[in-house]
């Protein structure tokens, strides 16, 4: 089970997340996460981007068979988000 926080600027402050790491050597992709006793995972990804991002989860670290999310901001400021 996965719980996603909206990346909208009007959201209240993010919850305290215990784990944190940068996912790239340039420190452009910051990932924070935690889980509760019911194994509900909360995560946040902060990425310096040109307007869109794709992020995936896989038990084996490869794209085929992974769960992916794509989201971004259109030029008019509206947000899109898709999970596959």
Describe the structure.
With 84 residues, the protein is mostly beta strands. The chain has one domain. Helix content is 0%, strand content 46%. It contains no helices and 7 strands. The radius of gyration is 14 Å and the shape is globular. Residues 27-84 form the DOMON domain. One of its GO terms (cellular component) is extracellular space. One of its GO terms (molecular function) is copper ion binding. This is MOXD2 protein.
Count every helix, treating DSSP H or I runs of 4 or more residues as helices: 0
Main sheet makeup: 4 strands, mixed
Low-confidence runs of at least 5 consecutive residues: 1-7
Name the average pLDDT: 80
Envelope shape? globular
Q: What separation lies between the terminal Cα atoms?
A: 14 Å
Which strand order do you get reading across the main beta sheet? 1-4-3-2
**Based on DSSP secondary structure assignment, what is the total number of beta strands?**
7
- Gyration radius, to the nearest Å? 14 Å
Query: What is the strand content?
Result: over 45%
Order of helices and strands: EEEEEEE
**Helix/strand/pairing category:** mainly beta
Helix content: under 10%
How many domains comprise the coordinates? 1
């Amino acid at each position: 089970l996965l719980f996603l926080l909206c990346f909208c600027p009007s959201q209240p402050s993010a919850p305290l997340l215990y784990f944190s790491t940068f996912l790239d050597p340039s420190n452009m992709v910051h990932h924070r996460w935690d889980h509760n006793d019911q194994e509900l995972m909360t995560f946040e990804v902060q990425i310096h981007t040109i307007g869109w991002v794709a992020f995936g989860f896989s038990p084996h670290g490869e794209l085929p068979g992974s769960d992916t999310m794509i989201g971004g901001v259109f030029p008019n400021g509206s947000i899109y988000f898709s999970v596959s």
